[in-house]
Amino acid sequence: MLNERVIAEAFEEFYRARYLAMVRLACGLVDILEAAEEITQDAFAKVFERWDRLDNPAGYLRTAVVNGARGELRKREVRRRIRPGRPQQVPVQQDYLLDALEGLPTRRRTALVLRYYGDLSEREIAETMSIRPGTVKSLLSGGLAQLREVIDR
After folding, report:
1. Comparison of pLDDT for 35 and 90, the residue scoring more
2. DSSP state of 121
3. How many of the other CB atoms lie within 10 Å of CB of 52?
4. Residue 86 has pLDDT above 70, yes or no
5. First to last CA, the chain
6. What is the rounded CA–CA span in Å between residue 12 and residue 30?
7. CA–CA distances in Å: residue 1 to residues 5, 7, 13, 47, 54
8. What ranges in 1-153 are assigned the alpha helix state H?
9. Residue 38 CB: number of other CB atoms within 10 A?
């Protein structure tokens, strides 16, 4: 009973410390607040289920958020094919960078959001996205170049 209480308290502290950052990360990837919150909650649930077996809960959480966002984007693509149109946007705040990111390919957007919203290193991005560090550099470089074009228009 005492062990369960200690685990619950540790998880609650972990949750409070990381929740807003993970919602912001997810929102940067899927651009709809409600979807970002749901993705984040699902990711925390996965972490909680494995809490006592995880060596790096923060890394697992981040990966779960990114994977959840990828799943959401895949679902949207299927919906678009079936029923054309764009999902209704709910602005988190007026963030012009998020608007510019929206036009980028998914992998570039993911890498940029992880780097500049998630504050991850290239190595951490590579681990999170399951790609090579050189690919991360390429995605970041190409994404920044593409953002410059969008912003300069």
Report:
1. 35
2. -
3. 10
4. no
5. 61
6. 25
7. 6, 10, 19, 20, 21
8. 2-30, 33-50, 57-82, 96-101, 106-116, 122-129, 133-152
9. 16
Unique residue bearing structure tokens 């929740």: 19
Please say whether the beta carbons of 127 and 59 come within 8 A: yes
| pTM as predicted | 0.68
The set of residues, in sequence order, having a beta carbon less than 8 Å from that of 88 and lying 6+ positions away, is 32
Alpha-carbon span 32 to 47, nearest angstrom = 23
Residues sharing a CB contact under 8 Å with residue 35, sequence separation 6 or more, in sequence order? 26, 72
What is the C-alpha separation between 29 and 87, in angstroms, rounded? 14
Size of the chain in residues:
153
What confidence tens digit (pLDDT) does each residue in 11-57 have?
999 999 999 999 999 999 998 999 999 999 999 999 999 998 999 99
Amino acid in the structure at residue 81:
R
